[in-house]
């Protein structure tokens, strides 16, 4: 199957926007913080978990609509961007500003945009049962809506993963679990925490479909997720998709990454998925390089505007925050 050019352009735009967004956040997050574990409120409060390198996982959103639900864990920015979350309000939320999605109360790990049915739980595995609830609602309402839960490979060892899959398989819910295997659960390698090679193998225990996408391949992710979404809409039940993806950054900003092997990230960057899609567009689809550069310039302008919006927005007034809590 050949990916339609308009979808390929969308993939490139989404991944380029996500990458630039994370690269900018990596710098902004350090503002006003001490160098040891980034202690201090600074411009952006709280912890920060970036998804640089994991952009292909969000390619499944090419097959989703506003009526489909997406839940995300603590590394959510690429998912939110792909699902169409308002970039200005998302950035303001991360900055803790009044103009944020939740008026600055949720922050980076608790993004919520009901306009596109996107939520971020922040807690490992917590978004899985939430997505199943949305899938159950779709089935009860007789709608062809799909629910997608993103999770790290470590969350596949949690009770929420298995309990949810058992019910979703039993009821044939339109649920898709996208497991982002970035090789580490915080600092623990997957080989030291998980008894099987890949989590798609767990699908057999529940009588559902399970597929794996190797080498962080966005084109294969497009194909696999298209089939999974079609199965879900047709009432054929859940799917587990595990994508072998790569985290270029530490678990959190300030992570000393002592668990990394020397040269590991440099080796991963040689197979960068954004460069692969870019090359494919030019070499095989005949897209002029100037058009590709135009897309990249556009997304950078959108991201820069979002950061400016967040910086210029006001912090919530304490009395307003208290009033919201009791109203």
UniProtKB/TrEMBL annotation:
Entry coiled-coil feature ranges: none
CDD domains registered for this protein in UniProt: TPP_E1_PDC_ADC_BCADC
GO molecular function: pyruvate dehydrogenase (acetyl-transferring) activity
Co-factor requirement: thiamine diphosphate
Protein name: Thiamine pyrophosphate-dependent dehydrogenase E1 component subunit alpha
Annotated ranges, domain Dehydrogenase E1 component: 46-318
Organism placement in taxonomy: Bacteria, Bacillati, Bacillota, Bacilli, Bacillales
Entry keyword Protein biosynthesis: no
Record-linked Gene3D superfamilies: 3.40.50.970
Keyword Oxidoreductase: yes
Biological-process GO terms, alphabetical: pyruvate decarboxylation to acetyl-CoA
Pfam families according to UniProt: E1_dh
Organism encoding this protein: Siminovitchia acidinfaciens
